[in-house]
Design a protein that fits this description.
Blueprint (H helix, E strand, L loop, with lengths): L12 H7 L5 H10 L5 E5 L5 H7 L4 E6 L2 H5 L7 E5 L12 E7 L7 H11 E12 L9 H11 L8 H5 L10 E3 L5 E6 L1 H9 L2 H8 L3 H15 L6 E13 L1
Parallel strand pairs: 1-2, 1-4, 2-3, 4-5
Antiparallel strand pairs: 5-8, 6-8, 7-8
Helix pairs in contact: 1-8, 6-10
């Protein structure tokens, strides 16, 4: 985790904003409730600001930081959210100013020791740190089997090593804070086939496979999925388990 990670999301902010699932509002509400106050939240690796805006509904001010200017160019506007290009290892935030620090589907890219040092610097006493991730999508019967074959066997070799940390729910990450137990939650979306394939297109593994010339592998999965889906405009239920490492700083 100490090496400089490739930023797989430097391009493609528009697709990322369009196709990535959003978290249930109950998650942002719970984090606001357990924080010492709701004056300021810091969302690190915020991407296009999906979760930043959800925090903005519960905090007086939110700052979203991301190293990708392209992601921030497609950030969702919110009256209480500001965005800034910045890294997890050098938080451009005043000392003892944040009541909550979050990293949603991002912590596996960080140099964690440096990030944790910055978290301790910017947090007020009793502030909370939440490392949030969502696991492998679960599709309806008749679709899930082909999807898991694609995920594990075909696209699997093209995932960066950090993906294993996501699949484990961040259980293997060092987390030197007093840990709390948030309520279990899941992501749920009703998507048609085009939206789901758009989501798959945003994966870092998909980008790597395409760069390796594996267009036919990707096309074959698309054909198989569409054949099993039926009417491609029909909405089907997609679920993702949410995993949270929540601690007190």
């Amino acid at each position: 985790m100490t090496r400089e990670a490739h930023n797989w999301f430097e391009q493609g902010g528009e697709a990322y904003a369009r196709y990535r699932p959003t978290y249930p509002d109950e998650l942002a509400r719970h984090l606001a409730q357990v924080s010492p106050d709701t004056r300021m939240a810091l969302d690190v690796g915020c991407g296009n600001g999906q979760f930043s805006c959800q925090l903005g509904d519960h905090f007086d001010a939110v700052l979203g930081l991301d190293p990708s200017a392209d992601q921030l160019a497609h950030a969702v506007p919110h009256a209480r959210v500001r965005y800034r290009v910045g890294s997890a290892e050098n938080l451009d935030v005043a000392d003892h100013s944040a009541s909550l620090v979050t990293a949603a589907q991002a912590a596996h890219w960080f140099d964690l020791p440096r990030f944790y040092e910055e978290v301790r610097r910017v947090c007020v006493p009793g502030a909370k740190l939440a490392l949030i991730s969502y696991g492998v999508a679960q599709l309806e019967a008749g679709l899930n089997e082909r999807f898991l074959e694609f995920y594990r066997e075909e696209i699997g070799p093209y995932w960066p090593p950090e993906r294993k940390l996501v699949d484990s729910g961040y259980a293997q990450l060092a987390f030197p804070f007093r840990e709390l137990s948030p309520p279990r939650q899941q992501l749920r979306r009703e998507w048609d086939a085009h939206a789901f394939l758009g989501y798959v297109s945003t994966w870092s593994a998909t980008q790597r496979a395409r760069a390796a010339g594996k267009e036919e592998m990707l096309a074959a999965f698309s054909r198989d999925l569409l054949a099993s889906w039926g009417d491609p405009n029909r909405a089907r239920t997609i679920l993702w388990p949410i995993n949270i490492r929540l601690g007190e700083v």
